[in-house]
Design goal:
four-stranded antiparallel beta sheet; about 20% helix; three-stranded antiparallel beta sheet; about 160 residues; alpha+beta
């Protein structure tokens, strides 16, 4: 794996610390990324997304979804069955504890989560504030400006 030095980025920019930190975290992790549980990220509309995580064997009470410091954290911890008398010949459904973190972009908000048929669906929406949305500026013609000046003189 290649190592990139982010120091020039820190020296040459102001206000991009989050992006540089995220790149540094992603590129410097030598540990292979966990593959459990499997998940999908889909775009459901222009500014809407859905994360679907396979959580077979977990109940609603075992799952936790929270947003903390710009990250969506999904975790699960299966309550131990102390009186469990089951004897498995093959145990292929993993119910081990996990924690998945998804870094959220600015203005992305979690709308809700639903658990059905062994899948946890988390809906997200990007809500760009009005101040950041592009807006059309009307261009005044020269005649309009002169007319307004004349009208102002006539009133005074």
């Amino acid at each position: 794996m290649r190592n990139f030095d982010m120091a020039p980025l820190y020296r040459a920019t102001v206000g991009f610390d989050q992006i540089a930190d995220m790149m540094d975290r992603v590129l410097s992790s030598d540990i292979s990324q966990p593959t459990y549980p499997p998940y999908n990220i889909e775009k459901t509309a222009d500014d809407a997304y859905r994360i679907s995580i396979a959580v077979a064997g977990f109940s609603d009470a075992d799952l936790s979804v929270e947003v903390k410091e710009g990250a969506l954290i999904v975790s699960a911890r299966k309550a131990e069955d102390e009186g469990n008398d089951k004897i498995y010949l093959h145990r292929g459904i993993a119910t081990r504890a996990f924690e998945r973190k998804f870094q959220l972009a600015d203005h992305v908000r979690v709308m809700g989560a639903a658990h059905a048929d062994g899948m946890l669906h988390i809906d997200l929406v990007r809500e760009v504030p009005e101040a950041l949305k592009p807006r059309q500026i009307e261009i005044a013609s020269r005649d309009t400006v002169e007319k307004d000046v004349v009208d102002a003189k006539a009133v005074n």
